[in-house]
Amino acid sequence: xxxxxxxxxxxxxxxxxxxxxxxxxxxxxxxxxxxxxxxxxxxxxxxxxxxxxxxxxxxxxxxxxxxxxxxxxxxxxxxxxxxxxxxxxxxxxxxxxxxxxxxxxxxxxxxxxxxxxxxxxxxxxxxxxxxxxxxxxxxxxxxxxxxxxxxxxxxxxxxxxxxxxxxxxxxxxxxxxxxxxxxxxxxxxxxxxxxxxxxxxxxxxxxxxxxxxxxxxxxxxxxxxxxxxxxxxxxxxxxxxxxxxxxxxxxxxxxxxx
Length: 258
Fold this sequence. Notes:
The chain is built from seven helices and seven strands.
């Protein structure tokens, strides 16, 4: 997308140093935005302003917000991308209280916490866009692979919808993007670990996953840049009348309507 439709906008992308987050950060910057990225550890190099933060730590979130306010005066676009699948498969009996809390802290509470601390400035300027990066797992849980993760993403979807309704008349739009299988480093590691545990080849593992999820009609994983294109559109002026919706980008894999 060769456009400068985000010129003058300030954007924060959490988990913005690799995978989908990096692709989003790069695309928003190419569209003219001033991009800030955050992650737990600093990458070897990034063209964007980097602030280290563990978003599951309330104190570090507060410090992140303070640095953003002090340096940039606030933000116009918030991409809540940080998250991931960190708990074991095997179903409900394998998951401890700590596992559930870990997944909720990472995939739900961290976004809620960051929204709460950054939204007052957006509301004050009567403009802003918040994107919550969810997953198709929020609508299609695989009990033996990602139960706690899927539940945390379903909760994020519900929270995002409620927040969008609350903020609709305050000039702030809230949207959810739900990628399906995407060719990122974490996804490929998940596939490798799954295959190693099952004692099967990557090709067999991919085939099994496709059978369990109903397959991908388009026949391939998404590329991170394709997800970034959707996010770019949603935060742009072209999407000014969109709020409260969940956008699946999954090659047609979700076997549900809506």
